[in-house]
Amino acid sequence: MAPENQLHLTSHHRLPLAAEAARRQSWSNTNWKTRRPAVQLHHHQYQAPQTGNPVAPSQRLILLTSQICQKVGKHLGMRSATRNPNTSSLAPASGNCYSGATVHLAAASTSVTCGQPLEHYLRSTKHVTPVCRQLSGRVNRALETSLQATCCCLQAYCLPVLNHMGVMTYVKRTFFSHQRDILLPAIQGVWTQQQAAHIAMLQTEGRPLVLGGDGRADSPGHCAKFGTYTTMELESNVVLDLQLVQSNECGGSYHMELEGLKRMVAFFEDILEIGTLVTDRHRQIAKWIRENMPYTKHLYDIWHVAKSVGKKLKAICKLKGCEDLKAWQQSIINNLYWAVVSSTQDDAELIVDKWKSAERHVLNLHRGHGGKFPTCAHKRLQGRAHKKKWIKPSSLSAVKLEKLVTDKMLCKDIGKLSAVHQTSKVEGFHSLILQFAPKSYVYSYTAMLCRTLLAGLHYNENASRHTATTKAGEQRFKIRYPKYKAGGHVVKKILVEATFSYVDDLMREVVDLCKAPSADRPVQLEEPPTLSSAMEKPDKAEAIKAHASRFKTK
Length: 554
Fold this sequence. Notes:
Blueprint: H1 17-28, E1 61-63, H2 66-75, E2 81-84, E3 89-92, E4 111-113, H3 118-123, H4 130-138, H5 141-151, H6 155-165, H7 172-205, E5 209-217, E6 226-233, E7 238-246, H8 256-268, E8 274-279, H9 283-292, E9 297-300, H10 302-317, H11 329-341, H12 348-361, H13 384-387, H14 396-405, H15 408-414, H16 424-436, H17 445-462, E10 477-480, E11 490-493, H18 501-515, H19 540-546
Parallel strand pairs: 5-8, 8-9
Antiparallel strand pairs: 1-4, 2-3, 5-6, 6-7, 10-11
Helix pairs in contact: 7-17, 7-18, 10-11, 10-14, 11-12, 12-14, 16-17
């Protein structure tokens, strides 16, 4: 039997016009400070169709149509639902039901009473699936509150909608309290478990690690607060370690990447052997590795060097008298990649000689390069390649190009470029972090760390996705026109849809934390002092008294 404080409406039981007019008038006279209707629906008494019991005239009712329910359910993260033809209500689809993901807030034939706590509807047998009822009966009040917090996970969307409808909900302080005590520790626990599993697998293989490392700042510019150093095992394509550094821990944002590297090396020191480390050309990191990791081979990523060379070539082409070099920009960059990939990793001298041959090739000189690469490897040029305009010897373009190609520091770095492993996957992971921790928002230390760990869990699960295929079995591709190509195109593979199995692990961890007594829960992460903690805080009254505007005021 339905509770007396609920009114069931079907297609045969609709409000009279007078009641509908009174309902609209009530919302037009809403007190927006409390978000409660100022006029109550007490013009008529209605009979509940199943029980025949009259509904109290002083009760204020909010009628939820199926469209509103679908919109609210979408914001609450409900899973796909199907309509039950017998009850004209939404029935949840099959699947796990942790945290109330398939909870019915309201069906098409149900109305919600103003002033009733949301917990009332979570406990109701009408609105909660059997799995949720069983789960709710086994655990304590903290888990029931956690179900509410997880169900209304989108704070910015769900709570205003429910408050507007007059449904009592929890406040922001309660939401962040559950996040601090349950959700964030659950993320840290699942990450620790999966990290230990990956390390155990690598220990079983017994080979030296091939790591790729790079740093990421939490905001654009040179005054970032947080820096994340990502360490990825490049052969297995797994994020192994994530180190979060706050700028006041290492003397400034410029030193955060080096501090993250130091913490990573200390973490793997007694666990695994680091055989190769691929990074960008960060001078601090290169010096520290050279002095403290003599048995580790340190290599550079090709893309970072090619990007630097491309910027310098672009600047040269803008000079007066160097316009003819513009046609050779992409060819010079291609030659850099070919010089590294076509040579053995240990023969740095051959790599550098191949790179230097580009300076003579653009002058239409293909022999007598010197060193280990005296002659160009291409065949006799024909067609389009032969018709390209050659650079004149002793011209300004030739002088500028020779100075760039033979730069000692650049040639030294090109000899250390990695021919096999690159950090492009690390850069891709940093792009993924933007989906979990956008740079336009500010987070606390623990929240930033857990959001980064959550991105690591998602990447590790979906890193090995294969290319999607058509019904005929052909691989699918897409064409993109990025800005840096200046009108050029890029062909990319279309991957299969991502999976989210790690969410089930997180929900099981949440359930375990809710069942555990407060004393047995993990200790909260110790955060470094805030950036303003070292500053002298003035007295508020004195600061206001001393405040003066730079502009004239009336």
